[in-house]
Write a structure and sequence with these properties.
Chain A: Keywords: Membrane, Transmembrane, Transmembrane helix. Chain A: Pfam families: DUF7314. Chain A: InterPro entries: DUF7314. Chain A: Residues 1-85 form the DUF7314 domain. The structure holds two protein chains of two kinds. Chain A is mainly alpha-helical. Chain A is 76% helix and 0% strand. Chain A has two helices and no strands. Chain B is mainly alpha-helical. Chain B is 56% helix and 2% strand. In chain B, a hairpin with a 5-residue loop joins strand 1 (135-136) and strand 2. The two termini of chain B are 19 Å apart. The chains are: A mainly alpha, B mainly alpha. At the A-B interface, helix 1 and helix 2 of A face loops of B.
């Protein structure tokens, strides 16, 4: 169980680190303005568009990965052992 | 899911220390155990344990039940790995997200919001307790001490209360549920720190200042009472589970 927590935690932190980096580059207006969740840049070039895709992918990877390892897999194991013990 | 299958029974049945034949790992479990990182980890700790065992057998010291790893190479490699990780993280953040360098301070202008560093908000809030500074009738309706001195004394009282706590309770409880009262004191203290932190910015809330000021003292008490009630309710079941596990008694039917 602790192992699954660590896997989920590693995915969560690593994914959010990648997301935070790209969000700090492309979605932060200024220090005093909106940080990390600002609007995407208008008319992005090829590399910027790729980076925005990677940013979104990292965010979904972090959230879904944590959900998988913290909720879905333990719940599945509990369900399986519950039906096995009946 | 029930754990009753994993617990030893009072009649002697249940899983023992020596695995019966039907508990010998299957080939799939062996495969999982012998692959990849888990195998490497296992071998590493097994080798360390073996070295430790050999050293103990060679030594003339009295055998003690202390498990430890040698400083070199085990602890050193681990520490280098940890230090490298944090150094790399610092370099990464400093390079990828360089910190904001603001304009130089303007000595001719006072900022609209003046706040210390965030970890001193609670102390700054304690300096804002001047509505509590009593105007004594015996002193002709004047305050016996200035508001500034009152705030400083409030800091002394708060820090003194925190310093006394370890002498009142030495903290042998493993979990908050074992000491509901002191857990409630702790929760109340943390909430008090937060409410004191919002006291300096009480003007920024859309309701009256007096409400924030009253809430700053009521919320810690309320949260401490809720914590005490919840933990006190949980305690009976917790202690029952603890005793059951300790004495390996069956629950009464």
């Amino acid at each position: 169980m602790a192992d699954e927590f660590m896997k989920g935690f590693a995915i969560f932190t690593a994914g959010l680190l990648v997301w935070m980096t790209f969000a700090g580059w492309y979605n932060t207006e200024s220090f005093y303005g909106t940080q990390l969740v600002g609007p995407n840049p208008e008319d992005p070039g090829t590399y910027t568009a790729m980076a925005l895709v990677v940013k979104d992918a990292a965010l979904y990877f972090a959230l879904l990965g944590a959900l998988t390892f913290w909720v879905l897999i333990p719940a599945g194991r509990r369900t399986r052992s519950y039906y096995a013990s009946r | 899911m029930s754990d009753s299958n994993n617990e030893p029974r009072t009649d002697g049945s249940g899983p023992g220390i020596v695995a019966p034949d039907d508990e010998v790992p299957t080939w799939r479990e062996r495969k999982e155990r012998t692959t990849g990182l888990s195998r490497l980890t296992y071998e590493y700790f097994e080798r360390a344990r073996r070295e430790d065992q050999d050293l103990r057998q060679e030594s003339s010291y009295v055998e003690r039940d202390v498990l430890g790893f040698p400083t070199w190479p085990h602890e050193t490699i681990r520490n280098i790995a940890l230090a490298s990780f944090f150094t790399g993280m610092l370099l990464f953040l400093a390079a990828m997200l360089p910190p904001h360098l603001g304009d130089p301070a303007n000595p001719a202008e006072t900022p609209s919001v003046i706040l210390p560093d965030w970890y001193l908000y609670w102390s700054f809030g304690l300096l804002h307790l001047d509505p509590l500074n009593p105007e004594l009738a015996i002193a002709g309706g004047e305050k016996i001490m200035s508001d500034e001195l009152y705030g400083v004394l409030a800091n002394v009282v708060a820090v003194g209360a925190i310093a006394i706590v370890p002498f009142l309770n030495k903290g042998s409880a493993r979990r908050p549920v074992e000491e509901p009262f002191w857990a409630a004191v702790g929760v109340g203290g943390v909430v008090f720190a937060f409410t004191m932190s919002i006291l300096p910015i009480q003007d920024m809330f859309p309701w009256e200042v007096a409400i924030t000021f009253d809430l700053a003292f009521l919320l810690p008490i309320v949260s401490a009472a809720i914590t005490y009630a919840v933990l006190k309710t949980m305690r009976e079941g917790y202690m029952y589970d603890l005793n059951k596990r300790y004495y390996r008694l069956r629950p009464p039917q």
